Amino acid sequence: MSESKSVFIFGYSGHAYVIIETLMDAGYKIAGYFDFQKAEKNPYSLKYFGFENNVDIQNIVQDHLVFPSVGENTIREKLIGFFELYSLNQFVAIDPSALISKTASINVSTYIGKHVSVNAQSKIGKGVIINTNCVVEHECTIKDYVHLAPGGVLCGNVAVGRSTFIGANSVVKQNTKIADNVIVGAGSVVVKNIHEKGIWVGNPAKYR
Ligand SMILES: CC(=O)SCCNC(=O)CCNC(=O)[C@H](O)C(C)(C)COP(=O)(O)OP(=O)(O)OC[C@H]1O[C@@H](n2cnc3c(N)ncnc32)[C@H](O)[C@@H]1OP(=O)(O)O
After folding, report:
1. Is 16 in the pocket of ligand 1 (CB under 6 A)?
2. CA-to-CA distance for 89 and 164, rounded, in angstroms?
3. Nearest CA among 8, 134, 135 for reference residue 61
4. How much is the pLDDT for 127?
5. Residue 119 in contact with residue 141, Cβ under 8 Å?
6. What are the residue ranges in the chain where pLDDT is below 50?
7. Could you say which of 68, 104, 123, 172 would form a disulfide bridge with 190 (CB–CB 3.0 to 4.6 Å)?
8. Domain 94-199: CATH class, spelled out
């Protein structure tokens, strides 16, 4: 394992644990974590480097890698803005068990979890979470800061807008478009385009 593959993670709670295990399985070394305060639990015995806004970030991180380990979309967006401001080295974290088409594109600071499939010609933005066991079928477009919770299925040619959250085990029918900042409840089935931000739940998914 080379020193150049050390990763600083930002955020250290439940979602971070999943990221850490993916990174370790993929052969990365975790250099430590930043968070607004020292974590109460430290199951991976990581070194705390402080709150990113209060430290000389470039001096600590140097040319190592950084990754946003927070499930909440707006916090992840802020972290990525911070990474961009300081020109920190972002990358894509892909669990070794995931199946990614060679013709799919995935932007930086995106997490692809265990047993995920991303199929042909799909385009995934930056800071996205495609969580455990999700299926992203052919030609899907997923904008920045989306979170697709575990078990979600996007059928072919689905488009998901920026910062949208799609709850666990939800299904989105082929050729459907979902707007920015939508929340789709767990176990929902989206069969028509969603043009309006807000919470949509049920089968078929309805505005709540
Ligand atoms: C690794 C991880 O853990 S990633 C995270 C995975 N987590 C998820 O996928 C959970 C996603 N969140 C949900 O599904 C939530 O229930 C939300 C966001 C849809 C709604 O949350 P809240 O706004 O707090 O709604 P609340 O719990 O108060 O329920 C309001 C009503 O909506 C209903 N409702 C809530 N969620 C759903 C749902 N997923 N499907 C159908 N109905 C729902 C409730 O039964 C309730 O109905 P009532 O008014 O008739 O009693």
Report:
1. no
2. 25
3. 8
4. 98
5. no
6. 1-3
7. 172
8. mainly beta
Nearest CA to ligand 1 atom 36: 185
What is the predicted ipTM? Answer: 0.97
State which fold the 6-91 domain adopts. Rossmann fold (3.40.50)
Equal CATH topology for 6-91 and 94-199: no
Question: What are the boundaries of each domain within the chain?
Answer: 6-91, 94-199
Q: Residue 62 Cα, ligand 1 centroid: separation in angstroms?
A: 42
Span from the CA of 9 to the centroid of ligand 1 (angstroms): 29
For residue 181, how far is its CA from the centre of ligand 1 (angstroms)?
A: 16
Residues 6+ apart with CB under 8 A from 162: 125, 143, 144, 145, 146, 180, 181
Coil, helix or strand at residue 88: coil
Residue 15 among known ligand-binding residues:
yes
Please check whether residue 166 is in contact with residue 152, taking contact to mean a CB–CB distance below 8 angstroms: yes
- The two three-digit tokens of residue 175, written as one number: 């050729």
**DSSP-assigned beta bridge partners for residue 142:** 124, 160
Count CB atoms within 10 A of the CB of residue 21. 14
β-pair partners for 194? 178
- 183 touches ligand 1 (CB under 6 Å): yes
